[in-house]
Amino acid sequence: MALNWNIERCKDYKKLTDETEGVITDALIYLTMSIGMPEITKKNHEEFFLRTQIHQKINGAFLRRGNGAPFYMTIEDVQKRIGLYTNADKFSKAVFKSRIYNSLVNSAIQSNKYEMENYEGEE
Q1: Cβ(52)–Cβ(31) under 8 Å?
Q2: Count of C-beta atoms within a 10 Å radius of residue 80
Q3: Residue 114 CB: number of other CB atoms within 10 A?
Q4: What does pTM read for this prediction?
Q5: CA–CA separation, 80 vs 83, rounded Å?
Q6: CA–CA distance, 40 with 25 (Å, rounded to integer)
Q7: Is 62 exposed, middle or buried (0-12, 13-18, 19+ CB in 10 A)?
Q8: 24-38, pLDDT tens digit by residue?
Q9: What is the pLDDT of residues 74-85, one digit of tens each?
Q10: For an engineered disulfide with 91, which of 47, 52, 96, 107 has Cβ 3.0 to 4.6 Å away?
Q11: Cα-to-chain-centroid distance, residue 19
């Protein structure tokens, strides 16, 4: 299924597609799928930002600056996009927490596998 989105309900939505802001808008659009929140509203923008922060803590910054430094989304980035909506699936808090937990477990398993495969032991 294709990801459909719309930002026309955002204040000054045309500015959100310029060279700088457009990159952030695109990233937040794709994040709607990862965090299970298909829209940003006045009512849910703080939860949207919280889930974005959790995603960034686990996976790192979604974007990079021109010099390669990580660029982390801010609450202001989210607030500017109140009104954005997509057709991404919606996750309850319980489902989101479960997905985060499973992601961490899988990461730990992969890390442990790598360490065990490269462990030479003491002789």
Answers
A1: yes
A2: 23
A3: 10
A4: 0.86
A5: 9
A6: 12
A7: buried
A8: 999 999 999 999 999
A9: 999 999 999 999
A10: 96
A11: 20
- Average pLDDT of span 63-84: 94
End-to-end distance of the chain based on CA atoms, in angstroms? 55
DSSP assignment letter at 39: B
* Token pair listed for 23: 């990159």
Angle at which helices 93-117 and 45-59 pack, to 10 degrees? Answer: 10
Phi, psi of 84, rounded to the nearest 5 degrees: -65, 140
Statement: residue 122 has pLDDT above 60: no
CB 61 within 8 A of CB 72: yes
Q: What is the Cα 44 distance to its own chain's centre?
A: 15
Domain positions in the chain are 5-90
Look over the chain and give the mean of its residue pLDDT values, rounded to a whole number.
92
| Predicted confidence (pLDDT) per residue in 86-110, tens digit | 999 999 999 999 999 998 998 888 8
User: What is d(CA 102, CA 81) in angstroms, rounded to the nearest whole number?
Assistant: 29
